Amino acid sequence: MLNGELHSYIEELLPGREPLFIEMETYAKENKVPIMELVGIEALLQLLRIQNSKKILEVGTAIGYSALRMAAALPHSSIVTIERDLERIKVAEEYMVRSKHGGQILLIKGDALEVEELVSVQAPYDAIFVDAAKGQYKKFFELYAKYLNDDGIIITDNVLFKGLVVQSDFESKRIRNLVKKIDGFNQWLMNNDDYHTVILPVGDGIAISKKKR
Ligand SMILES: C[S@@+](CC[C@H](N)C(=O)[O-])C[C@H]1O[C@@H](n2cnc3c(N)ncnc32)[C@H](O)[C@@H]1O
Fold first, then answer.
1. Which of 29, 31, 61, 91 is buried deepest, with most CB atoms within 10 A?
2. Cα 199 to ligand 1 centroid, rounded to whole Å
3. Nearest CA residue ID for atom 7, ligand 1
């Protein structure tokens, strides 16, 4: 989103991270696991710190990188995170056992659209972070927004999808359909009567939504 030089400049300014986080970043790169970008996750963590989130729901754990980063940044928080991919669940559990922040995290295994009952037991949430299948963002949002407390925020990642939301030429029909869905979600969200939303061109584009009072 930013030009390459500025992006590298900001990344170089970031303070050091725990060795386990660096290891997870390397694992994700080598195994092509899409975890949040460095600048994007810093923006997410800062929003959660400002809000002083105590209970966070994450849709899309992957290997547990963002969940553990949230736990580390907010030591008094607890995080409920959902993942359906068995291989990633296994890796996430291993990292959670090794990390001193793992005790703050409850990993729910299954499809996010099918585990509402388990998620609702832990409600209400101060923040919901949506970072799973992009084509289903509206469904995740509609399903879980009711478990947000009145001062809650919902952060949705990848809403600019590598800049593809403004392209008209696509390498495949699948990508074109996905872009259409993300654009549809963005339009719906920005015009939603119940939420104030801003889209920031940070990382892969994040939408920050706050309940209207
Ligand atoms: C972008 S990755 C999550 C990255 C993670 N939040 C991070 O930054 O470390 C998205 C993950 O969501 C999972 N996922 C996608 N759709 C899902 C669904 N309907 N239910 C549960 N998990 C889902 C995928 O298997 C994938 O591991």
1. 61
2. 20
3. 35
How far does the centroid of ligand 1 lie from the alpha carbon of residue 153, in Å?
19
Backbone angles phi, psi at 138, to 5 degrees: -65, -40
213 CA → ligand 1 middle, Å: 30
Q: Answer for the pair 42, 49: CB distance below 8 angstroms, yes or no.
A: no
Neighbours of 141 (CB within 10 A): 21
**Could you tell me which of 75, 79, 80, 122 has the C-alpha nearest to residue 100?**
75
- pTM of the model as a whole: 0.96
**Does any ligand 1 atom lie closer than 6 A to the CB of residue 62?**
yes
pLDDT tens profile 132-174? 999 999 999 999 999 999 999 999 999 999 889 998 888 899 9
Q: What is the pLDDT of residues 50-102, one digit of tens each?
A: 999 999 999 999 999 999 999 999 999 999 999 999 999 999 999 999 999 99
Helix extents (H) in the chain: 4-13, 19-30, 38-51, 65-73, 86-98, 116-121, 137-144, 173-190
**Which atom of ligand 1 lies at the shortest distance from residue 132's CA?**
12
